[in-house]
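agent> fetching stored inputs for the DGJ docking request
agent> found them:
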Amino acid sequence: MSIKYYENERIFKLDTSNSTYVLAVGEGGYVLGMYYGAHVDEHDLRYLYVREGHDSTVPLSASVPDWRFSPDTMQAEYPAYGSGDYRIPALKIKNADGNTVTDLRYLRHSIYAGKPALRGMPSTKAGDGDADTLELVCRDITGAEITLYYTAYKNHPIITRRARVTNTSCEAMYLERVYSASVDFTRDEYRLLHMWGCWGREKHVERRALGHGTTSISSTRGASGHYHNPFAALLSHDCTEETGEAYGFSLVYSGNFSIDVEVDAFGLTRIMCGVDPESFEWKLEAGESFDTPEAVLVYSDCGEGGMSRALHRFWREHLLEKKWLEAPRPIVVNNWEATYFDFDADKIVSIAKEAAELGLDMLVLDDGWFGVRNSDRCSLGDWVCNEEKLPGGIGKLAERVNALGIKLGLWFEPEMASRDSDLYRAHPDWCIQTKGRDMSIARHQYVLDLSRADVRDYIFDAMSKILSNAHVEYVKWDFNRNLTEYSSELLPKDRQGEVFHRYVLGLYELLDRITSAFPDVMMEGCASGGGRYDPAMLYYFPQYWTSDDTDPVERLKIQYGTSIAYPACTMSCHVSASPNHQTGRETMLSTRGAVAAAGVFGYELDPGKMTEREREEIKAQIADYRAVRHIVMEGDLYRLLLPGTETHGGEVCAWEYVMPDRSEALFTYVCVRTMIAPVSFVRLRGLDADRVYTDVKTGRRYRGGTLMNAGLNLTGSRRDGECVVMHLKAE
Ligand code: DGJ
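agent> prediction call returned; pasting tokens
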């Protein structure tokens, strides 16, 4: 068992592959967080508990006789609002009397092998023998029972957590905040790492010192969003890419979230993550339960790189759909940047023909194939093929594309209705809105109310009609605006605070239905690029469109930030035309290829507009990618030189994927800004020091140890944007 209970001390000890997590039932039944970090052995860890009341409030109940004890300073395992812990709470409940006082005390627990399913939301899986679970139930005198779930994985440095609130009283109560997990650390030296951004500039990495007080990253947009990602890490003061401690917190959720950190006056750091409380209230009737999304906690004593590699492996083994990991991903050409809305069947078939000749696997037909959608002003929701553009419909187009030897993929934006659409004209009430107020519009479209079953049925039927009648093997599921004026027609007044969360639950239900009805259709997620790139979406979409910004120089930062929490096998990356449509920057085709090959490779251009030389280069890129794809998909990532690394007046970036058995590696180096004749050695990582590796292109042989200690000799002048790619194979 990876979870043990020491009855005399009332201590729970959870062990993962590299970490220990300890909690205890204290005097008075308070549940205390004692320790989280590198492995410790099993003597009584109670001495770790800090007893300092600091003249703060002390509960008078006789069961807590120690005047040095105060909820205000305790290491709370799941802090509740209103009973003397004045720091950020994980739980706030308005009870039937209208007050928000909650005081949680231990009630019972159980420990068992395996992991219980989470109803209605995606979560990570555990096979036989992979993990054990602790269920710890606390209770407030109002009858609110909180079950804390902890699952410790034996072969991963991972603990998953979530909470369930059950109303065992006879009256309704209102949940105002219910976080998935909260951890109190007895140090205040951490820095916070998180990813911020916007459209076209997703997941830039920021590290900041944590001062006293509260720091939050969150979304209230209805989606996890472009601006912050539901991931953050606490870094020890000495943490680097490969050394030091990193504690990552990832929320498996696609809606409004919040990750909050508070450093208190006495040296404790509290971090918690969950559904954003600003935009949430949930009425819990007597006898009902509410489940939070799952939080995934990862511990690394090998820096940020170790944290990322551990998370990547965990998502691959316990979140992503096996089927899509086992089959090679199609190398696609997407027509968006090739044609935008200006296409007809012959144009699409001509792109498909070129694609087939170049060796690609699939053509993805993007926006504009339905209704009268010749611009972004109309037709979302009218999922009927525009036969003026595509005579014979999607079925006929699929036949023509398939006849060329390649597959067809299709774009949808299922959660939306254009203002100018038959759907909106027929069902204006199906869009999220607040009666008597302006409906904010974005990209000429509204968001459908996915909390409604009738709306979900409509979307399911409309998509099913297309997918059942045409040989479509891939869907790009887009989402291009955020939610505003969030009310729902069908919910009563005192349940309007539930709309955002019900929207997300509705989305998951719809995705469950679609993926079960069409199990052979692979889906790529997209939200104007990486605007909803989170673990819950990856449960349905094995890959995600990383960004609309396809400029390889911009992509270095975007893909680096994405790699902090998500593996390369989820990161959809395309080679696009030069000059780039978003930035106007001109770059070499080789570098566009090398950067896109760091993820799920594809193209976003019109191959018919390429010169003969470029076409030959593309053929070679595709063949090269096929030879290394397994390393990118299954390998461990080592970020060797982070984007923005200044060297000899130039700027470089380098990374490496290494197969878990260290038999092969793919090394990529991009010289972003040129430098003249520098002496330059890049140290590789993760290889077997004693094995000899051959550079597949040149046949040159290297010792693993030499490449890791002395480095790869890249001395010499390079042009702006030039890259070096090396596929190494062990003998
Ligand atoms: C936004 C996506 O990110 C693009 O790739 C493209 O699909 C457009 N939407 C189509 O409207």
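agent> quick read of the result: The chain has a mean pLDDT of 96.
agent> awaiting further instructions
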